[in-house]
Amino acid sequence: MRVEVLAEERTRTLRRAVLRPDLPPDAPLPGDELSGGVHLAAVDGDGAVLGTCFVYPDPCPWLPERADAWRLRQMATADGHRGRGIGGAVVQAGIEYATAQGARLLWCNAREPAVPFYQRHGFAIQGAVFTNERHPIPHQRMWRELSPQTRASND
Ligand SMILES: CC(C)(COP(=O)(O)OP(=O)(O)OC[C@H]1O[C@@H](n2cnc3c(N)ncnc32)[C@H](O)[C@@H]1OP(=O)(O)O)[C@@H](O)C(=O)NCCC(=O)NCCS
Prior knowledge:
Blueprint: E1 2-6, H1 8-19, E2 38-43, E3 49-57, E4 69-77, H2 86-100, E5 105-111, H3 115-120, E6 124-130, E7 139-145
Parallel strand pairs: 4-5
Antiparallel strand pairs: 1-2, 2-3, 3-4, 5-7, 6-7
The structure holds coenzyme A.
Coenzyme A binds near residues 19 and 120.
């Protein structure tokens, strides 16, 4: 398995299946219209996309003065392939990619069950669990600092 940058169309099927099964098959997902970032994908030897995430420059809502903020979004590992380190490899690749682009802060709105996963990758909780119109299932704001000197892995 390798993690590489892919066009958003190549990861869309997996993102929809895991994160937005309510959307019609050909519909873009929220965020597909954004530029400046990349979709990273874990690809197996047969070319199947088993895991993905999206990282892009986006101001952090609770630290708006930070001009070096990027957002992590749409983390997904294919059903039947979880718990084998694929998501970990993908989030590390996202951390490394954003850091290489000059990001020094990475934030996300994490689905509540994924909070321990993000904590293992250096993210801290910000505020309380929330739901709203755009996030009808419970989410938790999370973030971490990035440093070119810091190893991306669980530091
Ligand atoms: C969150 C998600 C992306 C994690 O992907 P994953 O491929 O399962 O991630 P990993 O395998 O690296 O880690 C998952 C767990 O497996 C464990 N694990 C990692 N490598 C492992 C291995 N080789 N053997 C056994 N367990 C392992 C880790 O301890 C980790 O536990 P944690 O969740 O308590 O941190 C995946 O669960 C998912 O797609 N969930 C549904 C969508 C979702 O909620 N996405 C997040 C939106 S914010």
